[in-house]
Amino acid sequence: MESKSFIKNLFDFDFSEFVTPKIIKALYILCMVGIAIGALMIIVNGFNISTLFGILSLLIFAPLYVVIGLLIIRVWLELVIVFFKIHDYVKDLKDKE
């Protein structure tokens, strides 16, 4: 089966092709940008409270937020990809029978 364009896949009501595996990288990049903005907000709010809290936010809280946030997002997106790979493998097994 020939792969259809991305726009055609969006309006494919038979769901013969999946869109999610094609946009997963862009979704990860968007999440990274969101996490970076959140880390900047943590730092700015820390300095708004006090200089000490700002330094703690800069050195401890924001990096911890980034690492944990990226880890959680990465695990969830990898889980989504695993589901699609399982689907592909099961489909291949079914086609072999």
Automatic annotation (TrEMBL):
Keywords: Membrane, Transmembrane, Transmembrane helix. The chain crosses the membrane at residues 26-47, 53-77. InterPro entries: DUF4282. It comes from the Bacteria. This is DUF4282 domain-containing protein. It comes from Candidatus Mcinerneyibacterium aminivorans. The lineage of its organism: Bacteria, Candidatus Macinerneyibacteriota, Candidatus Mcinerneyibacteria, Candidatus Mcinerneyibacteriales, Candidatus Mcinerneyibacteriaceae.
